[in-house]
Each structure stands twice: as structure tokens, then as C-alpha cells.
Amino acid sequence: MEIGIVGLPNVGKSTLFNALTGAGAAAENFPFTTIEPNVGIVPLPDERLFKLAAMESSQKITPAGIRFVDIAGLVKGASQGEGLGNKFLSHIRAVDAVAHVVRCFNDDNVVNVLGDLNPVSATEIIETELMLADLQQAQNAQEKARKPAQAGDQEARAKFDVLDQVIRGLNEGRSVRTQPVDPASISEFQFLTAKPVLYVANIDENGPDENILKPLRERAAREQAGVIVLCTKLEAEIVELPENERAAYYEAAGITSPGLATLAQAGRSLLNLVCFFTAGPKETRAWLIPKGTKASKAAGKIHSDIERGFIRAEIYKYHDLMTLGSYAAVKEKGLVFLEGRDYEVQEGDVAYFRFNV
Questions:
Q1: Is 111 in contact with 73 (CB distance < 8 Å)?
Q2: CA nearest 277: which of 331, 338, 323, 319?
Q3: What is the CA radius of gyration of the chain?
Q4: CB-based contact 129:74 (threshold 8 Å)
Q5: CA–CA gap between residue 166 and residue 177 (Å, rounded)
Q6: Closest by alpha carbon to 357, among 296, 297, 304?
Q7: In the chain, what percentage of residues exceed pLDDT 70?
Q8: Mean pLDDT of 90-109
């Protein structure tokens, strides 16, 4: 699952991506530096992984990761193709959620395409373009369903009606995610404004200015979206330091919680993911799956052969392991369970999958 990093040009998207992944994506001071999306996987810090690996004496530790996609800056008129807009919109359509970077800093050396610093106006430009693109798509899809619906096709009738509801909402200025529409009924359309959103307020090194941030927080609250505040420039500089020096830098800057770790965790929540573990002498690894994933599908995350030949899953809880001190003690207490393919894997499960192919 992927989170697309979007926003107007020159708001700090590629700088954020550099900090997240160390991939060295272009971050020059002019619009449309990014044409093709850059993709990177950001490891999620999780102390449980290291404690579990220590108990298993694992040779290798592999954290879970969130995939971030750096998408080029959108401009007003993108839905009509301005600024290569159609191409960029297609990149957004392919991701599962959106991290919307909003400029909340003043810097005369970095061109502000809006002229004035106005985070809410910036978000409205992006949201309007996404809604216009959704409106066009919904209207086209509804027109396609019109004739079979009139001919009595019940499936086409249901599709026509739900699209009619979506179109009315969009015309009223409401994004698809804020409309009372069953997500399953519109999933095939991959509407841009149906995707969950997290606002990333990009501030300067002097810290947050609540006078600037308050209107953005209020808008996010109305949309049931989250807000993460960080300085992408500072985070990118810290990532370039040796790992053993970063903590001291954060402390000197008065940062108690690194912004990138906070963003990665927020991204996990945005995608509604849970984490389970596999553990053994060779490797201890964390895996992220959508909440509600069945055991057989979780096994397929590891390898398709395990899903295909799934027999059962041996499950115990990380919390029980830490409380009792060993796998043997957990088993002795009867807290190791054999689960079938329909078991929903839970946060903090430690799993061993039995299979035969």
C-alpha cells in the first residue's frame, strides 16, 4: 500500500521525500522538478521488533515499511491538463492515501507560487482540482451506465444512482470521502477525493506558528483528516548525519519526537494497518497488513506459496511473550493458538504459518 506525497510546487514535497528515504530526489527551486514519481519505502521504528529478535537471538532484523510516492506539484487547472496535470492526477489515482504537504513557512529564497502564505488557500486549490477530476470521471461513468440502467439492468441502475449521489455532493463542494456513500459501491472508480488524507504542515526552523496553523487544523478537523507538523528542511539535514549523532541534534533543536517517525506512524494509521511479526533464529520481521486481513492472506504477504498451501497459523501475542518471558512459558500457559485461514490477524500477533505445497 502506498501514500502519495502531493501539494503545490515548492512546498517541500521532494525535500520531505529525501528525508524519508535518502533517495536524493530532485528538490530544486522551480516548479515541475519532479515529473515521474519517485518511490521509496520508509522503515517504521518499532521497539517490539528488537525485543523479540533479542529473545530469539535472530541473525537478521527486518522492520516493516511504508511506501511513499513523491508526486509532482499540482497547479490550478491541473484537472484540465495544466502543468502536465492529467499525468500527475493519474499518479495520485494509483496510491491508497494522500499526504498533502502544505507550505507554512516564509522564505524569500524559495518561490511561493501563491504569492502570499495561505495554507488553507493552498489546500483548497489542490482539493478543487481533485474534485473537478472526480466530477468529470463520475459524469463519464454515469453516462456509460445510463442506457443499461434505463433498459432494466439492476446493477447498472445501482451504479447510476450512487454516481448521481457522488455528482451532487461534488457539485456542492464536498469531497467523496465526506459523503455518506458506501466505499464498496464506488471502489472501482478510485476517486481521488475518496482517499484518506493527512496534512503535512511544513514549517521553518523557528518552530510552529499557531496563527498560521490554526486555520489548517480547523479545515482538517472538518474533513476528519490529521495534521502533522514538521520542518522538512531540518529533517533532511538530520538524516544526512551519522545515525549515532542524530539524537543529539534533535535534542539541541528541542525536538522531542522526530518528525519522520511521527509521519511514518501517522501514515500507518491513515492506511488502517496492523503489524504482526514472524520470529526465529534466522530472522525476526515485522509485517504490515490492512486491519481485518485473514490469516491465509497475511501468509501470502510473506510468500504466495505459503498462502496457496496454507494449513493453519500458530499465533501468540507479543504482550504475552514479554510478560511471561519465553515462548515455552507462553505455550505452558495455553496461550499459543492454532488458527484457521479465516482468523483475522491482530496487532502484535507473532505468527508461524504451517503450509504444504
A1: no
A2: 319
A3: 23
A4: yes
A5: 10
A6: 304
A7: 88
A8: 84
How many CB atoms are located within 10 Å of the residue 17 CB? 30
Comparing CA positions, the residue from 181, 200, 187, 21 lying closest to residue 126 is 200
Alpha-carbon gap, residue 39 to 237, rounded angstroms: 20
| Ramachandran category for residue 347: left, alpha or beta (phi over 0 → left; psi -120 to 50 → alpha) | beta
Q: What is the mean pLDDT of residues 74-89?
A: 52
Amino acid type, 213: L
**Per-residue pLDDT at 37:** 58
Q: What is the pLDDT of residues 16-74, one digit of tens each?
A: 888 877 644 444 433 344 445 577 777 887 899 999 999 999 999 999 888 888 876 55
Instruction: Check: CB of residue 318 under 8 Å from CB of residue 48.
Output: yes
| 96 close to 79: Cβ distance less than 8 angstroms | no
203: left (phi over 0), alpha (psi -120 to 50) or beta: beta
- Cross-strand partners of 99: 5, 198
Q: Are 202 and 101 in contact (CB under 8 A)?
A: yes
User: 3-state class of 201 per DSSP?
Assistant: strand
Report whether 347 contacts 333 (CB < 8 A): no
DSSP codes of every residue in 58-117: -SEEE--EEEEEE-PPP-TTGGGTGGGHHHHHHHHHTSSEEEEEEE----TTS--TTSS-
Could you tell me the three cell numbers for 26? 530532485
Q: Could you give the count of Cα atoms lying within 13 Å of 156 in the half-sphere of its Cβ?
A: 13
Torsion sign, CA atoms 119, 123, 126, 132: negative
| Mean pLDDT, residues 234-239 | 83
Task: Kindly state the cell numbers that stand for 28.
Answer: 530544486
